[in-house]
Design a protein that fits this description.
The protein is mostly helical and 498 residues long. Helix content is 74%, strand content 2%.
Amino acid sequence: MPAFRDCRFRRRVFPDDRNEKKEEDKMQAGEPTDTGTNLAFIVVIVAVATIGGFMFGYDSGVINGTQEGLEKAFGLSKLGTGFNVGAILIGCAAGAFLAGRLADRYGRRNIMVVAALLFVLSALGAGAATSSLFFVAARLVGGLGVGAASVLTPVYISEVTPAAIRGRLASVQQIMIITGLTGAFVANYVLANTAGSSTAPLWLGQSAWRWMFWMQAIPATIYLIALFAIPESPRYLVARGREEEAGSILTRLLGRAEAERKVTEIRGSLAGDHHRPRLSDLIDPATGRLRMIVWAGIGIAILQQFVGINIVFYYGAVLWQSVGFSEGDALKINILSGTLSILACLFTVFTVDRIGRKPLLLVGSVGMTITLAVVAACFATATIQPGGALHLDTGTGRIALVAANLYVVFFNVSWGPIMWVMLGEMFPNQFRGSGLAVAGAAQWAANFAISVSFPALASGVGLTPTYGFYALSAFVSFFFVRKFVHETRGRELEEMVG
């Protein structure tokens, strides 16, 4: 019987394979490549696009610390406060849906310009509001901008960056969101501290809480001007039949040879009958039902909100005051939470293209489940003080504070940035805009439901059941990801299937 050598199968490495791996390693390390990839240009346009993420965060976080001023200025009840706080989210849901659809018709960059204008108008209007109705209208306008920025920034980044570093650059969106939130927290703290409180008069005889809104007009104007310096998405241009323009932009991004190949790939990934992207593309023609990939996108979008992250950001100051911290200390805790969030997101930036999206989501689900359960257990020991205020003893309060901040870290290592990364890249070219429109609207609708219901739930059933629900949602998210979410690391957008 003949003797056989060890016959383990090995992948033969051809010269082209080695070259491709070297190029990928260079892009991962942020070094110049030999294929013409213009990393400096890519970084610049991503930096401009993610100002939208900053505005998303700032417009969402500025409300934190203004509730007392709103209640006094407009005579609001707790339910009224919840509606004024959550009003922006109605606009966000509409903005996300409309932007996703309009971006397929008018372009990603053009709709981002509209979003920037809405940010400016909202900032000026909210600060000048003379009634609750006026304020809600201004926040709805801002919500349209936030919703648009939330879906268009990740899709724009995914459509202008190479697959090898797409996750890393798309993750910057979450860093900018948290930076915007933290910037709002810092600005609110400084303005309130300068005036003496959020309701005290500051400059021009106007209350500090009004200046908290007016301050956001500054970054909004910067965003508006900077958008005119970046190109349109080449994938949008191919879908609209403007292949020459797309080729020119891809040449600047990737080099001439790669640009020609990429235009052909993008064209091939679109509908066989060459119809332009439309909402009905979300329906699977074989079954007549919504595609499973769309359900997966809707699911991760909703679960990201059902874990309760925005309660920490929208109601953080009020929450920590309710358990014994002063207004100044509560605002400082918000700044601490924002700083930890940024550090957590930086970890994701450096690992998402190496570890992958799905493993990070699973780790985040486990960490959030445990930390939220601890926070819920701590609130179960709270006592009611005269006047109805909650109180935690010093030791339990510290445990709750540590657990809450660990929760923020787990969220921002995983579900915070990864959800937006995946929504920007998981859908095929033919219906990426439509998929984002539906998933983005679902995300903001869930955000609205959680945020508006929190004051009533906290004062009704209590903080323990409320945080228990968030912990249960985190638990469910683990199994949802395991079953329905597929890894997208390293795959070109043209490889995504529905």
